[in-house]
Amino acid sequence: MDLSMAATSSDEKDQEAAFANGIKVYEALYRYPKPVIARINGPCLGGGVGLIFTTDIRVAHKDAYFALTEVKRGILPAIISQYIVPELGSQKAKEYMLTGRKVSMEEVKSALSTVVSSEQELDQRVSDYATMLLESAPGAMAGIKQLVRVIAEGNDVQRSPRVQAYVKKAFLDMMKSEEAAYGIMSFMNKKKPDWSSLSKL
């Protein structure tokens, strides 16, 4: 998703298109009927973190980490939040999103399938999971993915559309903000933003 285009455009249609294109990728992975394995062997930043939490099986190298750095650029992790918050819980999600700090895979291993200590072991575990999945019935696996989603969301069939409607509003409001424009331009110009110049607190 090209946030720079959305932030520098005053046309709400451009911003809505950026949102639609962004969420399409995450939803395609999250709702894909076949199992998706994440092989995590390095830094995951911003939207890359969201991709991790759309997958079903996550194998990570112990030296890998993630960081939700959007706040450092004056933007919200709006689209990816709906995949991250249910997995990490609200307290940890807030901490990681508010600080933008590096988070080790060991720290979030409860949200992963396994954490390994070498590249060779990483490849082997991914291969092992793929073999196990190939021995499972595809229709049953698709049904399990849907079953888990429904149970996780509860009986409220309107929850997902309601959450996505709010996420879209938060994204569009953010892209109109002075903070987002300033933060993204600072990033594009490889400069650290000086938030005190914009602070209204």
From TrEMBL:
Superkingdom of origin: Eukaryota
A Pfam family that the UniProt record links to this protein: ECH_1
InterPro entries with a match to the protein in the record: ClpP/crotonase-like_dom_sf, Enoyl-CoA_hydra/iso, Enoyl-CoA_hydra_C, Enoyl-CoA_Hydratase/Isomerase
Coiled coil: none
Family per record: Belongs to the enoyl-CoA hydratase/isomerase family.
Protein's recorded name: ClpP/crotonase
Species: Rhizopus microsporus
